[in-house]
Specification:
By secondary structure, the protein is α+β, with helices and mostly antiparallel strands. 37% of the residues lie in helices and 26% in strands. It is built from six helices and 16 strands. The protein has helices at residues 10-32, 41-68, 134-145, 180-198, 202-220, 287-299; strands at 3-5, 72-75, 78-81, 85-88, 92-96, 100-105, 107-118, 124-127, 170-172, 225-228, 232-236, 244-248, 252-258, 267-272, 277-281, 303-306. The strands form four sheets. It has a four-stranded antiparallel β-sheet with strand order 1-2-3-4, with helices on one face. It is flat and about 70 Å long. The N and C termini lie far apart (48 Å). Keywords: Membrane, Transmembrane, Transmembrane helix.
Length: 310
């Protein structure tokens, strides 16, 4: 009996959990180092409560992410989740291979994924970004359970665009430093630099420095930009300059413009014909740039699912 087991994505799951947890713990450490600076018992209690809340947030992040992305095994008869138990395909009432589903983390927000509904159970969500082999899992379900042919022969190649290539790219970008999140990052780094300079405590200086690095990495992940040529779609990052991902236009099934939460930047998701799905946040792009990008993609016969920019 054929089967396939899920694998959590090391970067989109484990690294994301690590950075978020580290961020809360560093904040807790920074606040804790101010304990001796408190002017009263009430101030000391307040600092302790803030530290406790931040530590709880760090633990909540780990627990919530692992609950949202349980490991599971799929075979031709059933699917078994580590948390929810075993469900048989003969009891399947409804399935949607793509779409937005609620992701519980502090506040619910929509996230791209697959929805399964079995008789007598609640809807089960499998989020694309949480697993390294999402494409293989969807191909297995499509081929063995839904008995629909899937284009497994199309393999995504994420090569770096060759230097001096004859391809002429049109770029869709904005100034990150004049965007809201770019200005927040600038102010945050400026404050942390000032705190490092005036700090008399070496431990506090190191914590502030580490917070600055984490903030830079997190904010850098919000400002991707894109390029299109006659044959390729390219994703780059102005800060993490080693990130240069190239897709063949013929490999792309659809492009989704989405916003995972009202406080998050507009993002672009690329879904390829072999069910691969990758999300790139682009907080520096203006609405007019998004509209132009949509028009140029549709002119190249690429489906665009615009969920947020009107």
């Amino acid at each position: 009996m054929e089967e396939i087991t899920s694998r959590r994505h090391w970067k989109k799951f484990y690294l994301n959990v690590f950075l978020l947890t580290l961020y809360f713990l560093l904040l807790a450490a920074a606040v804790g180092l101010l304990y001796k600076e408190a002017l009263s018992v009430a101030g000391e209690i307040f600092i302790i409560l803030i530290c406790l809340c931040l530590v709880i947030m760090a633990l909540y992040t780990i627990i919530r992410y692992f609950k949202n992305a349980p490991e599971f095994c799929v075979n031709t008869i059933s699917v078994t989740f580590t948390r929810n138990g075993t469900f048989f395909w003969k009891d399947l009432e409804r399935i949607q291979m793509s779409g937005k589903w609620p992701f519980k983390f502090m506040l619910d927000y929509p996230r791209e994924g697959m929805m399964l509904k079995f008789t007598g159970s609640k809807e089960i969500y499998v989020y694309d970004d949480m697993y390294a082999n999402t494409a293989a899992l969807k191909q297995f379900i499509s081929h063995h359970i839904l008995t629909k042919p899937c284009q497994q022969s199309i393999i995504l190649k994420k090569d770096k665009p060759a230097t001096g290539s004859s391809e002429q790219f049109v770029w869709y970008k904005g100034s990150q430093w004049f965007s809201f999140r770019g200005m927040v990052l600038s102010l945050t780094l400026a404050f942390l630099l000032y705190a490092i300079i005036v700090a008399s405590n070496v431990g506090l200086m190191m914590v502030m420095f580490c917070i600055g690095i984490v903030c830079f990495l997190i904010f850098s992940g919000l400002v991707y930009y894109f390029g299109i040529s006659d044959n390729y779609f390219v994703v780059q990052n102005p800060n993490l300059i080693w990130i240069r991902t190239k897709y063949r236009l013929n490999d792309i099934q659809e492009v989704v413009f989405e916003q995972q939460h009202s406080k998050m930047p507009y993002s672009l998701r690329i879904v390829t014909k072999d069910f691969e799905s990758n999300l790139y946040m682009a907080g520096a792009l203006r609405r007019t740039t998004w509209k132009q990008l949509q028009n140029d993609l549709e002119n190249r016969n690429i489906k665009v699912r615009n969920e947020c920019i009107f």
